[in-house]
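Hey Z.,

So I finally got round to the zinc ion thing we talked about over coffee. Here's the setup:
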Amino acid sequence: GGGKLLIKGGIVVNEDVEMISDILIDNGHIQLIATEIAADSETRVVDARGKYVMPGGIDPHTHLEMPFMGEVACDTFATGHQAALAGGTTMHIDFALPVDGSLVKGWEEWRKKAAKANMDYGFHMAVTAWNDKVAEEMEYLAKNKGVNSYKFFMAYKGALMVTDEQLVEGFRHCKKIGALAQVHAENGDAVAAGQKYIAEELQILGPEGHALSRPAILEVEATERAINLAAWVNTPLYVVHVMSKGAMEAVARARQAGYRIIGEPTAAGLTLDESKMWDPDFKTAAAHVMSPPIRKHDVDGIALQNALKNRVLSLVATDHAVFNSTQKAKGKHDFRVLPNGVNGLEERIPVLWTTMVNTGKITPMDFVRITSTEAARIFNVYPQKGVIREGSDADLYVLDPTVEYTISPQTHHSALDTNVFEGIKCRGKVVTTISRGDIVWDNNQLFTKDGRGQYIETKPFSPYLFGGLEQEEALKRAEMNAPVKRNLDKIYA
Ligand code: URP
Ligand code: ZN
Ligand code: ZN
Ligand code: ZN
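And the result:
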């Protein structure tokens, strides 16, 4: 950041405290938090009286410029970041895909895409095959390139999907290298059979076929299976885009039993309804197609909201993966080739504030936890990110709780020509966003530039935390006991 910045008189919110305070920012960092800080002549002052000042949003799940289903997601690291900054999000973790079967090449490719970054970003990597090279590259990226999370797809058969055997091998390897395993939990074989049935037997080819062919029960089945396999390996598991009440309940049962399972709902899953996939306007229906599908709001959406409130689910992502209406039109005559994905980078914060804080469901402190702090902790970038604290990066935003506005693709900042949140009336608007001490969004205007965002390494976890030492312990115990017990000790360790 450039000069000094002073944010005056705002309601400063962290996950554990709310206080009226001034914040002095210098050189990209939070320098001082105190009740009355005087400004010198070089200091720019932001008047935040009557407004909330919160840690910049961290979106733990996005797909910018992702090649997928024959298209490339139309938000780049420039447009996606501009949208994010206009909505109070100052960091995200994007999913890099392997290139030519190489995770390292994939990581390099995503770094090139991110040369245009307007805000800070980190990477997860998708693991779409299993062999020695993949295992070595995971270890290399975890140790040297700051990638501590790996996503396994249990769906998208014939493209990204892995088998259960590969899943178990992958989980075991994540545990070994101190990385967090993540799953896209849908039964891809059953989805393939369901798609065939819906499209070929029932002749349903419109976007509603997407919802019909991948019901919640297939998400529940895969979520339970992934949880059981992770429990067997004894490694933590992060379930991305939990979309159904049933999948949430699987997470709840596992957590109650003491397993380290993290469940991530999405902004769309929490607030929208599946009926939009039946919209007679193809463009609207197609815009809502994502996997797993958006479910019933009254049943699933509300249950997901309650689970967030009760800390059964941990944090909120967007799964921002956007294809414009021309790209979506590819699936006009067959939902099976309709590119999957919805928007949310710009809307996550105002829509959740409106839905969950304004209704009294959660406090502003809870809001900070689920939109920022928890993501920073889970991916090991806390307290550099996720908190307003002296020494932390000056990533924060000012939200005016009195401003009302309606979400529209005409006024949003994404490259997308549709918006699944269109028409939602928000009360509470992000009026100023600060990224590493720079005012990048203020008074409805962006002040940012391509290339200003930095890559944030997410460091591997302690092997002890991840149970990595127990194998060694088990072998030692086996040594001390009768040789005949050795195999059992290994198996049940
Ligand atoms: O429909 C979705 N979710 N598209 C993005 C890829 C994924 O599965 O997260
Ligand atoms: Zn997914
Ligand atoms: Zn995704
Ligand atoms: Zn720093």
